[in-house]
Design brief:
It is a single chain. With 130 residues, this protein is of the alpha/beta class. Helices cover 45% and strands 21% of the residues. It has a 4-stranded mixed beta sheet, with helices on one face. The radius of gyration is 14 Å and the shape is globular. It has one domain: Collagenase (Catalytic Domain) (3-Layer(aba) Sandwich), CATH 3.40.390.
């Protein structure tokens, strides 16, 4: 899987890549070699109906994720986890995205990432968190 972002090269781009790579490993989708996932950070007004994120999949090879960054308590890394669950659903040929699974997994994925960032040597915890 190839993960790209529209963020300028540097710390933010590296951080997005690190987080997305971590999530895809936990979700078991990092091994899809012919899949390009592009993650774009957007203004909240760019997404319809107050959505915090969107996943667009033309097919299994090109998938785009848009994530809104808001002021305040919104955790955009949780939204990234949610949208990457939809990527997994697309790659597993689900007939439609299941919001129940995405909402169920977003918090444990985010907690695992938080622990990983705080304690990078303790990767076993992160894998067991799901």
């Amino acid at each position: 899987m190839i993960i790209t972002t529209s963020e300028p090269q540097g710390t933010m781009q590296d951080f997005i890549y690190t987080c997305a790579s971590f999530y895809t490993k936990l979700l078991g989708i990092a091994h899809f070699p012919d899949t390009n996932v592009h993650i774009q950070i957007v203004d909240a007004l760019a997404l319809p109906c107050g959505a915090l994120g969107m996943c667009h999949a033309a097919d299994d090879s090109e998938i785009e994720i848009e994530i809104a960054v808001l002021d305040g308590a919104h955790d955009w890394l949780e939204t990234m986890a949610h949208e990457l669950v939809h990527v997994r659903q697309e790659l597993e040929d689900w007939s439609h995205f299941c919001e129940v699974e995405a909402y169920t997994l977003e918090k444990p994925l985010r907690a695992a990432l938080r622990h990983y960032i705080s304690n990078p040597m303790e990767r076993v915890y992160a894998e067991e968190a799901l």
